[in-house]
């Protein structure tokens, strides 16, 4: 089950999960608690999944983290995240992957969620032309909120061949023009989900190893989030698959 965090609980829970995500530090050796014991990872990276409502962000997260899929995912208006550890080129990398489902209804993601982010997965639905058209806006939002992050463009629901409206060639050409990686995925059929997350993790790791000093730009603790849930409801049922 995805860990659910309501916005008004974030300040308290941010302390609870600090052990899993010490945002001030990016490697074991940099974290003071490393003196007390050996951690089971070499790097901690934060990934953010963004995109229009219903494109399958939650389903991609569940498929990657738990290898599960549900056509009736129930989301909390707030933030969901999963933690998974991977081995990339001999480096043990722990990922904290944030799913912004429920926030995109406001047509923007608050800058708080971008804080400390190393990589962003921008998702659209191949059966929804509007979601692809909005990719440009999501990419601009990344530029507005992040100094330097790695990005990957993802066309989800590629199993829906009869309903497809966004050509793979068009999306790939656009991604190339923006100089970002591109994948078509199917969370439902487990197609390209693992390779996509491996790619974005590798990009983040490569960037850090090439320029370790750049990590210091993101060494700001998120602290508490003082945000109101303006939806009027904490939970809603939606088809984000």
From TrEMBL:
Annotated keywords: Cell membrane, Coated pit, Cytoplasmic vesicle, Endosome, GTP-binding, Hydrolase, Lipoprotein, Magnesium, Membrane, Metal-binding, Nucleotide-binding, Phosphoprotein, Prenylation, Protein transport, Transport
Entry annotated with the keyword Heme: no
Catalysed transformations (reactions): GTP + H2O = GDP + phosphate + H(+)
Coiled coil: none
Cofactor names: Mg(2+)
Annotated family: Belongs to the small GTPase superfamily. Rab family.
Protein name: Ras-related protein Rab-35
């Amino acid at each position: 089950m995805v860990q659910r965090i309501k916005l008004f609980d974030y300040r308290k829970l941010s302390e609870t999960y600090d052990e899993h995500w010490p945002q001030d530090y990016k490697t074991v050796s940099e974290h003071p608690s490393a003196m007390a014991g050996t951690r089971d990872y070499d790097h901690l990276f934060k990934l953010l999944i963004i995109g229009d409502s219903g494109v399958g962000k939650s389903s991609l997260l569940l498929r990657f983290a738990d290898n599960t899929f549900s056509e009736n995912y129930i989301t909390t208006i707030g933030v969901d995240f999963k933690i998974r550890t991977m081995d990339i080129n001999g480096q043990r990398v722990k990922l904290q992957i944030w799913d912004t489902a429920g926030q995109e209804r406001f047509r923007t993601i608050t800058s708080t969620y971008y804080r400390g982010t190393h990589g962003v997965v921008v998702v659209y639905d191949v059966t929804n032309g509007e979601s692809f058209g909005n990719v440009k806006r999501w990419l601009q939002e990344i530029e507005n909120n992040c100094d330097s992050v790695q990005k990957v463009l993802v066309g989800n629901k590629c199993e829906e061949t009869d309903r497809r409206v966004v050509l793979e060639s068009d999306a790939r050409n656009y991604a190339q023009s923006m100089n970002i990686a591109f994948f078509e995925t199917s969370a439902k059929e487990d197609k390209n989900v693992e390779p996509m997350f491996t790619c974005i993790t590798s990009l983040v790791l490569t960037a850090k190893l090439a320029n370790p000093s750049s990590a210091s730009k993101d060494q700001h603790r998120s602290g508490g989030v003082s945000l109101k849930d303006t939806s009027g409801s904490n939970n809603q049922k939606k088809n984000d698959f």
